[in-house]
Amino acid sequence: MTDTKNIFNFSEFSLNLAHRELTFRGEPVEIEPRAFEVLIYLVMNRDRAVDKNELQDTVWPGMIVTETALTRAVMKARKAIGDDASRQEKIKTLHGHGYRFVAEVTTQEAAVTPATVAVVPEPIREKPVSQGSGIRSNLLIGLATVLLISLGWVLLRPGPMIGSETRIAVLPLLDNTENQDLAWTSLGLMSYANKLISTDGSLEVVPAGSIIGLADNFGWSGNLDDPSNKTLLSKLQQVYGTTHILAMNLRPESGALRMNYALLSPDGKQHKGTIVGDGGG
């Protein structure tokens, strides 16, 4: 099962994926990041038993951890939701195999009203490292804004491609310029894209911190077509209910800057585009 709803309710708890928040009777519950990832995965795969190795690979992608670390994360997840190893009312241990989330769950989603993507540029506050880098920063922000306006038309136009359960993962931008002044763009423009897409609440974005961790662990190559990224893309869909994945890359072109993008949709097709801006030299 791969849920694409925003909120999971069980007992008097609510698990909000978009806000990455666990609440009890509306009040936030403290939970450690690994325990939170365990809880998310078990809830989203509640229709089946989850093997320990599968859970470890999801919560600690690309890392070798002991079973004790997993047991501790499960224990903390149980504690956060008022469960424990003796009661097992919500997280059941399947000895010799793994775990299963057994509490009754209802799902809901935030209301989404089709609209154009709001474009209120928010300046990125990276300090220019040399003369001219400020100009390039403004240019790149402008390119990203135009790109995301185009993206908004694709995501919000009527048709079977899009529904009210859209969750977008923006991957780190691949900088092919070999220009140290533009090193900030990899995460800087990724963060800017996140803010621009989610600014009016019409579309949901997977938190940048979660994406960066997975991208680092799986060695994101910057190309959605690269077979080596298959596991990363699968994790984004399985763990975060991602419906669309956005990849961007930047390259120089005759004294200008070219920004390419590819948007992977739920049907496996890609919408590609490119925008060129002067003054990138």
Question: How would you describe this protein?
Answer:
With 281 residues, this protein is α+β, with helices and mostly antiparallel strands. The protein has two domains: 102 residues, Arc Repressor Mutant, subunit A (Orthogonal Bundle), CATH 1.10.10.10; 145 residues, Rossmann fold (3-Layer(aba) Sandwich), CATH 3.40.50.10610. Helices cover 33% and strands 22% of the residues. The chain has seven helices and 14 strands. The strands form three sheets. Strands 9, 10, 11, 12, 13 and 14 form a six-stranded mixed beta sheet that branches. Helix 4 packs across helix 5. The longest helix has 24 residues.
* Structural domains: how many: 2
CATH class of the largest domain: Alpha Beta
Provide the CATH topology of the largest domain. Rossmann fold
Number of DSSP strand runs: 14
Mean pLDDT: 76
What share of residues are in beta strands? 15-25%
Give the helices and strands as they follow along the chain.
EEEEHEHHEEEHEEHEHHEEE
Any guess at the CATH architecture of the largest domain?
A: 3-Layer(aba) Sandwich
CATH superfamily heading of the largest domain: ABC-type transport auxiliary lipoprotein component
**SS class:** alpha+beta
What proportion of the residues is helical, as a percent range?
A: 25-40%
Taking pLDDT < 50 over at least 5 consecutive residues as the criterion, the unreliable ranges are 110-136, 156-164
- Globally, the shape reads elongated
Give the number of helices. Answer: 7
- First CA to last CA: what distance? 49 Å
